[in-house]
Amino acid sequence: MTTNVLGISAFYHDSAAALVRDGEIIAAAQEERFSRKKHDPRFPRGAINYCLEEAFIEADELDAVVFYDNPLLTFDRVLQSLLSVAPRGLEQWMHAAPSVLGIKLFAADFIRDYFKTDVPVLFTRHHLSHAASTFYPSPFERAAILTMDGVGEWATTSINLGEGDRITPLKEIQYPHSLGLLYSAFTYFCGFKVNSGEYKLMGLAPYGTPRYADTIRENLISIRPDGSYRLHTEFLGYLDSERMTNDRFAALFDGPPREPESRITRREMDIAASIQVVTEEAVLALARHAREITGATDLCLAGGVALNCVANGKLQREGIFDRVWIQPAAGDAGGALGAALLASYRHFGVPRCVRSDGRDSQHGSYLGPRYSEAEIDAVLDRYQAPRHRITARDERADAIAAAIEQGKTVGYFAGRMEFGPRALGARSILGDPRQAETQVAMNLKIKFRESFRPFAPSVLAERTADYFDIDCGVESPYMLLVAPVREERRLSMETGAFDHGDDDMLSLVRQPRSDIPAVTHIDYSARLQTVGPREHPDYHAVIQAFERRTGCPVIVNTSFNVRGEPIVCSPDDAYRCFMRTGLDLLVLEDSLLWKDEQPEFPDDGSWRKTYELD
Amino acid sequence: MNSTEEDHLLCFFERLRGPVAYEIRERRGQLFPLGPDNADSWYVNYDPGTPEFVTVETHDLVDDLRRMWLEQDLPELARLADEFIEIAGQLRLGEEETADISPFIYVMY
């Protein structure tokens, strides 16, 4: 008998839905892609509808809906948190109570009302959902599982053992002590948006020196030799105010928080470098303890902190575990997938089958919608958009590679959309990594984002070791590992002025740092996506074609969106983004559209206001 | 949230942060550690009896909350379970209203 389980994460941030049939992942998507509201926390009706469509089922054919956390425990934590700071906390109560009391406790009713059925609604725990999201799709029969995020119910970090279809939670760190919240506190302090700007803080870190690391170790976080940690909460604002940090925190870091969108100074760069170092220390200590108490040789990671690919790279290179697998939707969206998988295996007793070829079961994380030729034509006809159809894969790949070689930037829309925050070649913007100007040009003219932010390389898996220092056999298909560019490819940089206090990061960004400068960060690191031929043959073919033309098996891959916009989902999203930005070529499956052939696109720029800056 | 609901919420908070918080702290001290102490390890061992799945049904909420707090030796909160759920019922939001969740709630959730 077939078992269909729908997992939902919602009412927090990054709502998502995932559908699992007999233990097989059929579909998964974040609500933001459909609603076009970044990190949308609302009930994921768009994502749910898509999942049901992809599975060709109606709601009454679902065997269960599983919510990814337990609202009772969450309410308990919120309440005890308020009581712990009473009589302070009024502002938090007035803001939090309507959401905590008015939404999450009624999630089961919400779900049944939406589906208009009496489908069983189960609730699991936040960190168990994370653990399930990474262990079950992993290629491991047995593994330690480490989850780290801001907070879920009471837990902020958990160590588990996965064996077959069973996940045994072993130990956890509880709120308010949280590596994720600590990193978010620094994100806020450096003027970035909590829960989306963490990536910027990580990208900023290589520009600085970790001169505040001891300050953080001495005043903000104490780490035991076994990896357990506690925060010194008197320096943090989130217990008793609406801010992540307080005046005591500011006093440690030489002044008040940076105003969002103001100039980034050396102080923020050094703070970013410092918290990155301390975060890595904590992650490594936790991983060592996980290895010690589980005896497992492989590790699975999930939770928002697992998106810190610099820490992941260190963990990989440290060799604490033989292999590391990270859920690409490591944040809360992935909880929907974990909840559905957990129920399939543990509630319905579906046997778990680890793939015999040693690969994972995440399907490249291409778990979102695909659009047919007819659907794409319907959109393009509406815009009266001239296009060139090239149906032969290699011919199409060569045309795209030729454009990239000529310095053009390409909006690339092919196959099923990615599940998780990274674009992996299904909804990507592609460029030439060999040009030093690519980084600045793509940031400013296409992404409309800060120029210091680096781009990621997609590299043919078989050529990875020619460009990056990464252990033989280690793959990074989900862009979750950072590795150094090989020594012989690096170019020395003129850093004199910067080292002597000039805060102009552009003076560094504009300098070639290697023979693939657009994807080489200023510390010579790169956030890798290794691309093999299996999961996305079309994308692999594009990189192969670029290699044939140029000898370089690497291209720039960044998400197909502008700053503050969710990654494009539909052909309509893609065409609008193409016409509003400096992109030169749009690829919609086998249709190629050149910007200079398109009819005028009415654009008053007001759309920029609809996307909140991240 | 209308002004009546807001007043109700405010009144309830006054009770929470006054008598209830005082009573709990008087009896138990701090509810959870706010910083490092001398323990060798700060991990919390997991209770192996914790179920993987639960149901959270509206008609069981009062009993569920009461049981949860009694198990944690928090009778002061258990006594308020029905009031919490009454307030929750008043605050219950429609689907579209969930759009108004404040980003700051991130920490509180």
How would you describe this protein?
The complex is a heterodimer of chains A (614) and B (109). Chain A has 614 residues and is of the alpha/beta class. Chain A folds into 3 domains: 4-68 and 70-123 and 332-361, Nucleotidyltransferase, domain 5, CATH 3.30.420; 172-323, ATPase, nucleotide binding domain (Nucleotidyltransferase, domain 5); 373-610, Alpha-Beta Complex (DHBP synthase), CATH 3.90.870. Chain A has 22 helices and 21 strands. In chain A, strands 13-21-20-14-15-19-16-18-17 form a 9-stranded mixed beta sheet, sandwiched between helices. In chain A, strands 3-2-1-4-5 form a 5-stranded mixed beta sheet. In chain A, strands 8-7-6-11-12 form a 5-stranded mixed beta sheet, sandwiched between helices. In chain A, a hairpin with a 2-residue loop joins strand 7 (155-163) and strand 8. The radius of gyration of chain A is 23 Å and the shape is globular. The mean pLDDT of chain A is 93. Chain B is built from 5 helices and 1 strand, in the order H-E-H-H-H-H.
Architecture blueprint of SSEs:
The complex is a heterodimer of chains A (614) and B (109).
Chain A: E1 4-9, E2 16-21, E3 24-30, H1 31-35, H2 45-55, E4 64-67, H3 71-85, H4 90-102, H5 107-115, E5 121-123, H6 126-135, E6 142-152, E7 155-163, E8 166-174, H7 179-189, H8 198-204, H9 213-219, E9 221-223, E10 229-231, H10 247-252, H11 266-294, E11 298-302, H12 309-318, E12 323-326, H13 333-347, H14 373-382, E13 388-389, H15 393-405, E14 410-413, E15 427-431, H16 438-447, E16 456-460, H17 464-467, E17 481-484, H18 496-499, H19 506-509, E18 525-531, H20 537-550, E19 554-559, H21 571-580, E20 585-588, E21 591-594, H22 607-610
Parallel strand pairs in A: 1-4, 4-5, 6-11, 11-12, 14-20, 16-18
Antiparallel strand pairs in A: 1-2, 2-3, 6-7, 7-8, 9-10, 13-21, 14-15, 15-19, 16-19, 17-18, 20-21
Helix pairs in contact in A: 3-4, 6-13, 7-11, 8-11, 9-11, 11-12, 15-20
Chain B: H1 3-28, E1 44-45, H2 61-71, H3 75-78, H4 81-91, H5 105-108
Helix pairs in contact in B: 2-4
